[in-house]
Write a structure and sequence with these properties.
The protein is of the alpha/beta class. It folds into 2 domains: 46-282, 3-Layer(aba) Sandwich (Aspartate Aminotransferase, domain 2), CATH 3.40.640; 287-351, no CATH class. The chain has helices spanning 5-8, 14-27, 46-57, 70-84, 99-110, 126-134, 153-159, 182-194, 252-263, 271-282, 287-298, 340-351, and strands at residues 93-96, 116-121, 137-142, 164-170, 198-202, 228-233, 246-249, 300-305, 308-314. The structure holds pyridoxal-5'-phosphate.
Length: 352
């Protein structure tokens, strides 16, 4: 079969391949834990499920505007402002079919043959292939365990060439859990502005941070409007991977281009899922610390003395279930601690 050059440039997403293989084994009765996808093993919170059921009952089953229903675009901007300190308006927001789709669309409208895209490594496996599909060349900047896998502005500046069009910065990072501190993030923004490079912040794990880190968005920094693009998703924060809702925040002209592209591909994201996401954005977020605590718990080794459990050391610096782990800073176990609130929430959950 004669396929296009662009499809031959990429490989099937390794996570999708692992999911398919795991499903095959499960259907044969094999008892396995699938660490392929970054997938919360929590159910979607009840209030979100109820909102979707209500939407079905109210026949919210028609096409919606391509960029998403206006209440959702407004709610995403309000949530992002409240949680992460930005100031976007609905016209600077588009709803897509998951964060991956959002990233794919951004690459499609900004990257072409001859462009370079900087990606700190280790990276989420889909980034390079999405860049290649768009015609760009991924350029990797290594991050190191001793730096907590956090990339430095100086390393980014060294990697920039006249061909560089965009930097993907995924913080907290999948797979390393590395977090870029706000001051370093701002230095990176300054470098990007100096060289007219787009800074795309992938915030899909924004709320999976452990002390001393806090959820942070570069969109809260002064002067971030012109060249910053934010990718977000309800997949991880609200345990909604299968609902497929993600979003992009950025300059209005970019959002218009994304709407144009989407209008000729998927059209709107699923209407019912949009109403579920609307509830996620407007409703309580108490399930987030519960999940965080559980992931923090799993990412540590525990020692038992009598009836007392104590944390020993972080487990192999990698997440269980493919989630970013709290990484130890300076080799100590300190960075491994989830917040006290999170552990309280976990205790409550374990008592139930
Ligand atoms: C770093 C990163 N960004 C984006 C995504 C996309 O998530 P989704 O398409 O489910 O919103 C993932 C999913 O695993 C991810 O790990």
């Amino acid at each position: 079969m004669q396929l296009t050059d662009r499809i031959n440039r990429i490989q099937i997403s390794p996570t999708a391949a692992v999911i398919a293989e795991a499903d095959k084994l499960k259907s044969r009765g094999v008892d396995i834990a699938d660490f392929g996808p970054g997938e919360p093993d929590f159910p979607t919170p009840d209030h979100i499920k109820m909102a979707a059921i209500k939407a079905i009952e109210e026949n919210k089953s028609k096409y919606t505007p391509t960029g998403g229903i206006m209440p959702l675009r407004e709610a995403i901007c309000a949530w992002h402002k409240r949680e992460l300190g930005s100031s976007y308006e609905a016209k600077e927001c588009i709803v897509s079919v998951g964060g991956k789709h959002s990233i794919f669309n951004v690459m499609s409208v900004l990257i072409q043959l001859g462009n370079e895209v900087i990606i700190p490594a280790p990276y989420w496996v889909s980034f390079p292939d999405i860049v290649k599909y768009a015609g760009g060349t991924p350029v990797f900047v290594e991050t190191k365990p001793e730096d907590g896998f956090s990339v430095k502005a100086s390393a980014i500046e060294k990697a920039i060439t006249p061909k560089t069009k965009l930097l993907i910065l995924n913080s907290p990072s999948n797979p390393t859990g590395g977090v870029v501190a706000p001051d370093e993030f701002e230095r990176i923004l300054t470098v990007c502005k100096k060289h007219s490079v787009w800074l795309m912040g992938d915030e899909c794990y924004s709320h999976f941070t452990y002390e001393p880190h806090k959820p942070y968005s570069i969109a809260s920094a002064a002067g971030s409007r012109e060249n910053v693009i934010i990718i977000g998703s309800v997949s991880k924060t609200f345990a909604m991977t299968g609902w497929r809702i993600g979003y992009t925040l950025g300059p209005e002209a970019l959002i218009q281009a994304l709407i144009k592209l989407q209008s000729q591909s998927t059209s709107n994201a699923t209407s019912i899922a949009q109403y579920a996401a609307l509830e996620a954005m407007r409703g309580p977020m108490e399930t987030v610390p519960v999940m965080l605590a559980e992931y923090g718990f799993r990412s540590c080794c525990w020692k038992r003395r009598g009836s007392h459990w104590s944390r020993a050391k972080p487990l192999a610096r990698r997440a269980t279930c493919g989630f970013p782990t709290p990484l130890p800073s300076n080799g100590s176990t300190k960075g491994c601690a989830a917040s006290n609130d999170s552990f309280r929430a976990l205790k409550l959950r374990r008592k139930q």
